[in-house]
Amino acid sequence: MGSTPVGTEFTFRYVGGAPRKYISTYQEDECHDKILLKLAKLHFNALQKQHKQELSHLSKWWKDVDIVSKCPYARDRLVEGYFWALALYYEPYYSRGRKFFTMGVVYISVLDDTYDAYGTADELELITESINRFDTSLFEQMPPYAREICQMVFGVYSVMEEDLLKDGNGAHLPCVKEAMKLIVRSYHNEYLWLKKNLIPTMDEYTQQSFSSSAITTLLIFSLAAMGDIVTKAALDWILSAPKFVIAAQGIGRFLDDIVSHEFEQQRQHIPSAVPPP
């Protein structure tokens, strides 16, 4: 935390952009090392170019998926998701981690909007069952939008599968798949609360809503993409919800409740940790 001002501890910062300020300051110093300054500029420009290329490739993938036109109720959060990934790790060798994380953010956001405000009980049951079983046989029973959502999820998994197998990290795939199942089960359980008009206790709410914060799913995606330094045992441990994961889930959930509670009061929604005015 150090000298971080109170009230800004949870602000996402793009740490990779900080050298730009330091380069300008160092350049004005009469005693600066010209070679060091030149290397710093080259490194910053190369890193910025890589980030632009990554976002360009992700944008092309997202445009090809075209889920925004097929599900117009859903938020388009690609750039937001990539910026979030940069806040986690900007270094060039974590390119795949940023790719997996951003893909996770955009597809989870579509699922969240679908379960929160669009799908019917029968449709959500089919989506949940299809993803939970990783089974396309239910597609014939789905309306077009639900089928597109499941195809999007399976498509994201296929991209991750191809990348991980290419690097010899196929052992991570069961954990990636389980993380995908975890988030849809959580969203569906919350929908059932709403449908049955249940008001959970705070303990019940935290137990359920922490898992729907998507922290675990995104954490698995990020770590699985980091290569040999992360083992399957480590991913299994994350899925077992150790204390630090529960703490991260809680931070994510309560921050989300604080930010979104006014909007969510305008439509049917499960109770949140923030009481209505």
TrEMBL record:
Residues 63-274 form the Terpene synthase metal-binding domain. It holds the Pfam family Terpene_synth_C. GO terms for biological process: terpenoid biosynthetic process. GO terms for molecular function: magnesium ion binding; terpene synthase activity. Keywords: Lyase, Metal-binding. The keyword Manganese does not apply. InterPro entries: Isoprenoid_synthase_dom_sf, Terpene_cyclase-like_1_C, Terpene_synthase-like, Terpene_synthase_metal-bd. Its cofactor is Mg(2+). The keyword Thylakoid does not apply. PANTHER family: (-)-GERMACRENE D SYNTHASE, OS04G0344100 PROTEIN-RELATED. This is Terpene synthase metal-binding domain-containing protein. It comes from Kalanchoe fedtschenkoi (Lavender scallops).
